[in-house]
Write a structure and sequence with these properties.
By secondary structure, the chain is mainly α. It is 60% helix and 0% strand. The protein is built from 5 helices and no strands. Helix 1 packs antiparallel against helix 2 and helix 3 packs antiparallel against helix 4. The radius of gyration is 21 Å and the shape is elongated.
């Protein structure tokens, strides 16, 4: 988990506390004032349309497994899923 993701979760919690714990308002304001870390590069590189199409065309559309793999890849690309989200079994969640 990145620093900014953790900070966003902490800030969300402190926004929740802001109205429920007035005695801690000064501390809440200091936490909410912490700036996010600036990054020069994106953490997730994006693929070009041609690259994605090549990945989707890779499975064999004739075989049953190929159809299944293509469908899984298509869902992952369209929904922005990570591999772990796509392949996790229900009991693992």
């Amino acid at each position: 988990m990145t620093r900014n993701v953790r900070l966003a979760a902490i800030k969300s919690f402190f926004r929740f506390l802001e109205y429920r714990q007035p005695a801690a308002l000064e501390q809440v304001r200091r936490v909410l004032a912490i700036p996010f870390k600036k990054t020069d590069t994106r953490l997730v590189p994006y693929r070009l349309r041609e690259e994605l199409q090549a990945v989707l065309d890779a499975p064999d559309p004739v075989s049953r497994d190929g159809i299944r793999h293509r469908a899984m890849l298509h869902v992952a690309v369209c929904a922005g899923l990570r591999v772990s989200e796509l392949t996790a079994r229900p009991q693992d969640r």
